């Protein structure tokens, strides 16, 4: 099979159907950009979970005087020093507990003012309304229930709180965004495949005379089909290349420069360039193989050889 003939036929096919080829490139680029974004967003959620779940604590909040009227667990009044000492001693005996840090009501008030000092609620709070607490670092954060079941009903304990629940809504939002990206990607992928099939059909119809002559002189089915398959593969590869550019540009302008989220949101551990680079070969491979397979299937119907 002469390579020169194959490449010349690819060029002829792409030029004859330039507008449809352009539509295929754009559709493939958008669908694969969404595909890569979905992979990176999923990786971002995993990175954030690994980063934050290693840092969050289990908090034991103690009753204060104000809780006596508002919390059913604090009917006997504010926590006593003896009750706190007993809880601290029991925490120190648990192998699951790595460290225990005490936060007074004054410290809690100070931290709250630092975070929400401009809010209307913060201006009405006083230190005695804030709760004392033990901040507990666990060797395995997933075993929060062990601590909760051991201390939730203790005298003087208002609540045992797993701080992972504070992050749960954020991770659920990111997961939902990921599912939305996958859904849109699937729709774009269907559009791209339909365009590829139509492009191959039009190309095969426009060259029916040439393929008829090739059949008469004994050309094999593969020899006739390869130019059409390669046309689709080239268009897909161009789209995949454009998708890679969009992914790299998105990472650069959103996180490093432009929006500069890495600097504006220092508490978020963003994915690095290594994760982006790992996704790019997969995007290129899908962009090359998907149109080629679609073209091969379409030729079995539209090109009788």
TrEMBL record:
Keyword Ribosomal protein: no
Protein origin, superkingdom: Bacteria
Location(s) in or outside the cell: Cell membrane
Domain ABC3 transporter permease C-terminal: 183-301
NCBIfam families per record: FtsX_actino
One Gene Ontology term, aspect cellular component: plasma membrane
Spans traversing the lipid bilayer: 21-41, 177-200, 236-255, 276-299
Protein name: Cell division protein FtsX
Keywords, sorted A to Z: Cell cycle, Cell division, Cell membrane, Membrane, Transmembrane, Transmembrane helix
PANTHER family named among the record's database cross-references: CELL DIVISION PROTEIN FTSX
Subunit annotation: Forms a membrane-associated complex with FtsE.
Family: Belongs to the ABC-4 integral membrane protein family. FtsX subfamily.
Topology term for the membrane: Multi-pass membrane protein
Gene: ftsX
UniProt record, GO biological process: cell division
Chief place of localization: membrane
Pfam families: FtsX (PF02687), FtsX_ECD (PF18075)
The protein's role, per its UniProt record: Part of the ABC transporter FtsEX involved in cellular division.
Domain FtsX extracellular, first and last residues per copy: 56-160
InterPro entries given in the database record: ABC3_permease_C, FtsX, FtsX_actino, FtsX_ECD
């Amino acid at each position: 099979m002469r390579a020169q003939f194959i490449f010349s036929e690819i060029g002829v096919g792409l030029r004859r159907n330039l507008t449809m080829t352009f539509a295929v490139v754009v559709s493939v680029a958008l669908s694969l950009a969404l595909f890569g974004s979905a992979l990176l967003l999923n990786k971002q959620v995993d990175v954030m979970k690994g980063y934050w779940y290693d840092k969050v604590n289990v908090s034991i909040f103690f009753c204060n005087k104000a809780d006596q009227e508002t919390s059913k667990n604090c009917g006997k009044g504010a926590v006593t020093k003896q009750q706190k000492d007993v809880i601290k001693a029991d925490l120190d005996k648990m192998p699951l507990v790595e460290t225990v840090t005490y936060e007074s009501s004054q410290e809690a008030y100070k931290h709250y003012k630092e975070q929400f000092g401009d809010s209307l609620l913060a201006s009405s709070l006083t230190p005695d309304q804030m709760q004392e607490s033990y901040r507990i670092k666990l060797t395995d954060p997933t075993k929060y229930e062990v601590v909760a079941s051991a201390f939730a009903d203790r005298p003087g304990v208002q609540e045992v709180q797993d701080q992972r629940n504070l992050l749960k809504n954020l991770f659920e939002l990111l997961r939902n965004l990921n599912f939305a990206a996958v859904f849109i990607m699937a729709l774009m992928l269907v559009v791209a495949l339909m365009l590829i099939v139509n492009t191959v059909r039009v190309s095969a119809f426009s060259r029916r005379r040439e393929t008829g002559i090739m059949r008469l002189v004994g050309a094999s089915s593969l020899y006739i089909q390869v130019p059409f398959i390669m046309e689709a593969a080239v268009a897909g590869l161009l789209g995949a290349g454009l998708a890679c550019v969009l992914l790299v540009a998105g990472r650069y302008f959103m996180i490093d420069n432009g929006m500069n989220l890495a600097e504006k949101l220092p508490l978020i551990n963003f994915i690095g360039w290594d994760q982006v680079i790992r996704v790019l070969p997969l995007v290129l491979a899908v962009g090359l193989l998907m149109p080629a397979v679609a073209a091969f299937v379409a030729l079995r119907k539209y090109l009788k050889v």
